[in-house]
Write a structure and sequence with these properties.
15% strand; 18 helices; 523 residues; 39% helix; alpha/beta
Length: 523
Amino acid sequence: MSDIEEKSVKLGVSTDQLMENAGLSLAKALKLQVGRFAGLKVLILVGPGNNGGDGLVMARYLGKWGAQVTVYLTARRPEIDLKLISALEYGVTSISSNNDTDFSKLYLLLKDCRLVVDAILGTGASRPLEGRFKDIAIAINHWRLTASENQVVAVDLPTGVNPDSGEADSASLDADYTLSLGFPKAGLFQFPGANSRGKLSVLDIGIPSDALEGIDIDLELLSPEWVGKNLPNRPIDSHKGTYGHTLIVAGSKNYIGAAYLSAQAAIRTGSGLVTVASPECIYPILASKLTEAIHIPLPDNVQGGISSESVDFIRSNLNQYTALALGCGLGTSDGTREFVQKLFCEGSGLDIPLVLDADGLNNICMIDRWWKYLPSNTVLTPHPGEMARLSGVPVVSILQDKIDFTQSRANYWEKVVILKGSHTIIAAPDVNTFVSPFANPAMSSGGTGDVLTGIIASLISQGLSGILAASCGVYIHGQAGGLVADQFGDAGLTATDITNELPKTIKALRGITYSSDVSKKLG
């Protein structure tokens, strides 16, 4: 953001103009949120830098539109502060914390206020909160918890949250809404900072499009517009062969549902054909439940998993398929581990796009330099625990900066890597890294990862590259889960609920209607 703003100045948009644009956008966003301003009491906490300047411009507009605004100066501002002077001309009241050493004036303001705007530090939070900043943050957090109607709106990001890593001071402000300026900050999608941001909106502040040229930006937030335009084409003269043939190698005696969920997700996402290769002992159950798929019962081992005797058959028939998904519900018995190791490590390397998930990861990681045995066009889909097993790095270290860690592993392994969880990360060598906007506790239930695997494999079968299939798949999965959570809440969601929502989600992203486009009357 610093580089972009500097480039904007060179292109003729001054820092002052960006601040004016930001303040107006902030005021408009707040007006949209609360409705009428007449008589509304707003307290704006103003810091010493540009974030505080944004808050003062916001205060001016709110005062102009009829709100009763008080700005509380948390630190020394310039002696001649034109933004403050301008705000005062519109009836804004100003109180300096230098004249409020015991915070009695702040406490009095909070008693009669239901809306606080945090414009203290923004992206300037590079060190722990200390002194008055810390005391003020603690006071605001306490006030916010005293009544459900008390709300905090953060400008750009909550005070105390690191804009890059998401590290958060123990006293960082907790916001109900964060209004990010220009672009979202990476720290808002990493924890613990993401816990402090509340609902996030990104505001346009008039940055010229040319300001992005030459700037080293390698991180993108997934959006419905981006996903919609990158989904596979569905021509009207197509047939089932147009959309590929996905092979799902999954399931074991204890995890029948995993094979079902991944295969059903592949079907629901649009794969022309889906074949499920599963242990013979579960084939009758799976075939009766999954009627749209082709089934291949494979020899099973004594533990109820796929036997290593299946490897030759699978290898000799791979040329019939356009994508392979392997791992969902395989189990980790000795016999299954032997099957996975023999499939990937004996004979020539597999030449098929691969999505490797769950027990596929848990079994392959036992092999030294396991990534060398996988196809170059492989998508890995670990959650943090599986990532720890793959990398040998503790979960706590992975999550300290999960964006950077996922990027580094994708480059080192030369694979597409998805680190699943709240705000899933999708990385691949030499391309931008993508961040999912979704953080949905309702999706914390068994089988949702199997659904994601089926979605991604299906998109690859339909012609998308690994990184596009992974990114679009993560978004579709998250959006479908969000739609289900909107209906049922944040508990009780099942993986099947998500699968059933997939066609409607994809239809909405495409923005296409399917009623007849042929008129009955031609004359």
